[in-house]
Amino acid sequence: MKSKIAGLVLIIGSLWYMIAETICAFSFKDSLANTYLIHTISELGIPHPNSPYFFLMNSAFILIGLTLLFASFYKLNEYITKNKILFYIFTVICGVGVIMVGLVHAGNPMAMTYHASGAIMAMVGGNILLIILSRSMDKFEAYHKITLILGIIGLIGFGLMFLYMKNIYMPVFERMAVYTMVIDNFILGVYLFKDKF
């Protein structure tokens, strides 16, 4: 029963993230293509006429962080047979980081350090967490391969984002580093929900 609850929580968190970003992208004051190609995810969460549903984006950051922390400490930790300390460390880094991104929006010079720090914690810590998960569980063999690939793609995306920070299309690489974690949360949620352990 606990695995079903943890799985459902992860599924809800990841689905809400994608729904919230989609709503914010469609309502953003630019074309949909431009919103995804040249505007960062964080821009969707800035209280500004450009993003009338900014609160949805920020709620999605906070919710996905909370669902990751809850599911990890409530049940997922029981599936971790190796690297448990690393699992806990990077779960907290990622979870707290993405919550910070939601609580302290971009665009505020006074708080930009906290927002940027939270984003780095979430993207780097989260994708490292995916790689740790792929090497630390004794169940879900197919998931091990999927999450390892997603973690590597996410870290490559972050590296490209860092290298091309001033490039107009940098947000593409940012999304590459973020979506890997959202997709993984959903897939892991399905595995946990279907498991009888």
Structure description:
The chain is mainly alpha-helical and 197 residues long. The chain has helices at residues 2-27, 32-38, 54-74, 84-103, 112-134, 141-163, 170-194. α1 packs antiparallel against α3 (54-74), α3 packs antiparallel against α4 (84-103) and α5 packs antiparallel against α6 (141-163). The mean pLDDT is 95.
Features:
single chain, 197 residues, mainly alpha, 7 helices, 74% helix
> In what range is the share of β-strand residues?
under 5%
Q: Largest sheet, if any?
A: none
Q: Which class of secondary structure composition applies to the elements?
A: mainly alpha
Order of helices and strands: HHHHHHH
What percentage of residues falls in helices of 4 or more residues?
A: over 70%
Straight-line N-to-C gap = 8 Å
* Assembly state of the chains shown: single chain
Radius of gyration: 16 Å
According to DSSP, the number of beta strands is: 0
Spans where pLDDT lies below 50 across 5 or more residues: none
Shape: globular
